[in-house]
Inverse folding.
């Protein structure tokens, strides 16, 4: 028996348990940070023991590679804006998929180049799976990144026979894979599979509108887990399989949650074209024919000042304007004046699940002030002022009343029940779903036009003066 | 790989999937973004595979080794970046004292 | 048994234990008694082991076979009795129409 | 590759998944029955495929053994009274442990008698574990059964040096096991381990009071799972390991829940002697010096009749008296008179977790009428009449007010907050904890002495007459 091997197997086991415990602890706000730490310890253990076990000949190169990678990763993690989390996750996720592809490819080439070593069909299947899923994850994530970042046209990019083309490519991949399983030595076939998979990643994501990208990223995140799991089968390594399954499950569940909160099916999201109508009808501002009442900064400050309870509904616009800090300042000011302040968090406000929570936490808003939709929806009727800051779709009453609306059926916040609603946004532009919002024309609704951060800063200084 | 060991690995996969589903469905919406980036960091576990590939005897199959090295660098970015950014997010979640 | 396969079995054990804890902690008190008798029936799974033991070639080790047969009978009582009594209990849980 | 073997492995995999899904479904009242069914299908699959795979020579004997066992099991399952569930589980549980012992022993003898076959130490360890745990489960469950059934003195049986003796026996088992691992061929040692383990099962359970038996049974249930899991290691069979882990986890969690609800630690339960003080101070009736007010059947009926809301608190006495059916009848009568009726279910009312739920379900009380302690504890103050039927410890206010009480700290139902409390019990005897209950002397508390079933039948006929 080989002791180093035994120790490394046991360490992998311990790492797996730590990963699971880490994920479990990520489920509670109080323990989440520790959970993330445990998970990183598990990763460290797995890496360390692999270095030991493989009796690597040339540590130098390996350390250099790891060092470069870690430095880039650490730099990016420190620099990224909290508002750019979706982009960051997309980037990293693509790297994960890429690494799966490279590992499987490298293993394939190695086995293939060893003389007299036959690739059995199980190994072939698992190698193909890792390469396929990894490649789709890789290019898909980068398209998603480009769309979020605005490098690429955010709307849905569609052309004729798009779905037909995808179908043909899919069949090509299937056929090539089958042939490859039967004749695993054929490297050319492997590159066909890789190439088409990369292309499929691009083509399946471009028709999806930029605003649906969070769903896509979450799904690709799940893919990257599945790819890691497949790599685990290639290398006969349980840690990879277990973590792959955890990540796969996490991605799929988050995807489901987002789709459900938007009242759309995953298929509907993936077939794409949703962002399109949005781009058309919501492009210019002021196009819609609702008549709205404007309110000035001073008047708004007075309204807040005389309220006894305020509910703040943040949305994507707050993230864009980076207005979370000034909002927190306003909250503190109001509380000093004995006005109760709560935040109503819609499950899909912003562009990622939990987006608003992260931003407000960044601004030091205590998390017990953030109330979820189901809990707070009945409280609007008892609230004096509701401040809608950069939110649009998540407060659109059409979701409740207009069966023709694309967001009909999506649960929304009942802000219109509040005595006064103040909406802070730059103009009359539509939100992500690209539809008008009749709320803005309601008698109890006042529009506070301007960039959220700028107007809120003024409101705060008015409040201080008062 | 023989069928016996494949099946045992499938057991591991199935059980881990159950564990994943049970644990993740309990995570509250507040933590969904950190969860996403945290699990993304975890998927960088392929770094283990990358080490295996790049550590192999260099002489005989250089391409395999080079691919392994690139994989290693890429996976390191994913792992380190993912964990640190998740930690940065989670650090911000504080209860009011 | 070699260490490799033992460790894989330990993986299965650990993961199954996690699944068990997550699932059982969700069971409401109402269902605790059925759960107890139901899981008791499940522990009769040793019946599989009993079949293996009693099915073996009879000539060479009669004692082993006899023990296997007794185990088989005993485990059958446990399994059948356990499932039926659990079903009887659960049949009674009805919502008011 | 051997196809039958492959098929059987896959079937085991499917069975494992079905077991897990079954347990998952057992977590919801609506799906629980189906879950139990799925679990039994899984068991059937596992048995069928084992029969196939092992290419058993003599099916006849096997079928006869299974038939006899199934017939006995089915008969027992049909005949057992719902109030005797704890006994039934104890019985079956013992059988499970016994079967583990027999399987491991049989496997051990087989390997041992095969010439030239060496028992390696891993196999030895797993065999010893199954035999040890199985044996303790076997005898422990039967002692628990005997105590519950009253065949054996229910109180704690203690003698001098009891714990010392157990400790010595435990060390003997440890030493014998270690020797056995080093010298697995030594059959005599194996029988020493078996014998001492059987003895330990008896000795560890006899000092525990009869009323603590549910905790013991639940713990032994967990053991029988662990024993099955150990057998899985012996036979290298994953289904056994998975189901063993599920059962093991279930038993341990239920044990914890019970201990927590009684505000005692598991160690405290296992060290025993708790029933003893009970036997002493609560033995005779009327011994305590609280002055109580009695109420007659007619008057009780009148009080119910003029109430507008009634909460019924059932306890172990209702199970003993089999009064659940007449209670349900009373509930229907009261509801016809537009009096709201709810049941308050304490987590450890009765003698098993969920005991009251099962009994009341048997009597056709819809389960949405059964309210858990946390939910209903605030409602007592708005309730006209609280009927405490055969409950004692779970309504003892000493748990809240008297730090010296053995049950201090155990959460109890706030029945004393109700306008009137009617307590139905036979005399002034104490409940399971063996302590007096000052509630009975409270000004708003009326005692309705007599067997619960008999008095309730009278109350019901009074109510019908009224
Ligand atoms: N959270 C998720 O996980 C997720 C995932 C996928 C999709 N989505 C979708 O995203 C949407 C989220 O809804 P939402 O209400 O948060 O956002 P929204 O409907 O996209 O609306 C954002 C609003 O913010 C305003 N805005 C933009 N920049 C601003 C600035 N600097 N200052 C002030 N206002 C600004 C915009 O109006 P102006 O241009 O007039 O200022 C816009 O109407 C939902 O439709 C949801 O389905 C969410
Ligand atoms: N549920 C569990 O899982 C579990 C497990 C372990 C231990 N326990 C323990 O069991 C106790 C349960 O409390 P509990 O309040 O349900 O029961 P209890 O405290 O044991 O009291 C039962 C009462 O019922 C009365 N009684 C007996 N036979 C009766 C009959 N035929 N008609 C009317 N009354 C009758 C007895 O008084 P008379 O003799 O005067 O009639 C006795 O005081 C708790 O202390 C708990 O910790 C429960």
């Amino acid at each position: 028996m080989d002791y180093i091997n035994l120790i490394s197997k046991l360490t992998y086991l311990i790492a797996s348990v730590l990963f699971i415990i880490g994920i479990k602890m990520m489920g509670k706000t109080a323990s989440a940070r520790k959970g993330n730490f445990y998970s990183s310890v598990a990763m460290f253990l797995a890496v360390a023991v692999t270095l030991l076990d493989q009796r690597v000949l040339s540590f130098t190169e390996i350390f250099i590679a790891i060092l470069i990678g870690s430095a880039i990763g650490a730099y990016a993690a420190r620099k990224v804006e909290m508002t750019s989390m979706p982009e960051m996750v997309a980037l990293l996720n693509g790297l994960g998929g890429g690494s799966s592809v490279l590992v499987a490819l490298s293993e394939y080439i190695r086995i293939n180049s060893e003389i007299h070593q036959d690739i059995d069909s199980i190994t072939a299947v698992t190698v193909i799976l890792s390469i396929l899923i990894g490649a789709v994850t890789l290019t898909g994530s980068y398209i998603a990144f480009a769309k979020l970042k605005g490098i690429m046209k955010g709307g849905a990019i569609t052309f004729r026979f798009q779905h037909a083309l995808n179908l043909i490519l899919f069949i090509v991949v299937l056929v090539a894979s089958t042939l490859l399983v039967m004749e695993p030595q054929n490297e050319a076939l492997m590159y066909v599979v890789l190439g088409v998979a990369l292309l499929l990643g691009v083509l399946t994501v471009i028709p999806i509108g930029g605003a649906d990208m969070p769903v896509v990223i979450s799904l690709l995140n799940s893919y990257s887990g599945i790819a890691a799991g497949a790599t685990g089968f290639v290398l006969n390594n349980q840690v990879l399989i277990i973590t792959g399954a955890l990540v796969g499950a996490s991605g799929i569940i988050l995807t489901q949650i987002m789709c459900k909160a938007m009242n759309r099916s995953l298929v509907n999201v993936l077939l794409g074209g949703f962002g399109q109508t949005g781009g058309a009808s919501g492009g210019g501002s002021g196009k819609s024919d609702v008549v709205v009442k404007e309110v000035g900064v001073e008047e708004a400050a007075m309204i807040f000042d005389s309220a006894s309870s305020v509910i703040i509904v943040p949305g994507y616009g707050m993230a864009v304007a980076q207005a979370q800090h000034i909002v927190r300042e306003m909250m503190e000011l109001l509380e000093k004046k004995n006005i109760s302040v709560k935040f109503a968090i819609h499950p899909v406000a912003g562009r990622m699940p939990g987006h608003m929570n992260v931003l407000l936490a960044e601004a030091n808003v205590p998390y017990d002030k953030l109330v979820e939709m189901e809990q707070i929806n009945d409280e609007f009727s008892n609230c004096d002022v509701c401040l809608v800051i950069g939110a649009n779709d998540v407060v659109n009453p059409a979701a409740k009343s207009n069966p023709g609306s694309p967001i009909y059926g999506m649960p929304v916040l009942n802000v219109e029940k509040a005595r006064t609603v103040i909406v802070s946004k730059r103009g009359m532009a539509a939100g992500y779903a690209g539809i008008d919002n009749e709320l803005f024309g309601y008698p109890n609704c006042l529009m506070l036009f301007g960039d959220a951060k700028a107007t809120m800063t003024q409101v705060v200084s008015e409040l201080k003066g008062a | 790989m023989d069928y016996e060991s494949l099946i045992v690995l499938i057991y591991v996969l199935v059980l881990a999937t159950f564990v994943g589903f049970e644990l993740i469905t309990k995570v509250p919406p507040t933590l969904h973004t950190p969860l996403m980036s945290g699990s993304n960091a975890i998927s960088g576990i392929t770094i283990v595979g990358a080490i295996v590939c790049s550590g192999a005897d260099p002489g005989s199959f250089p391409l395999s080794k080079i691919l392994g090295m690139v994989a290693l660098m890429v996976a390191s970015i994913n792992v380190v970046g993912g964990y640190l950014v998740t930690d940065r997010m989670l650090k911000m979640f504080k209860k009011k004292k």
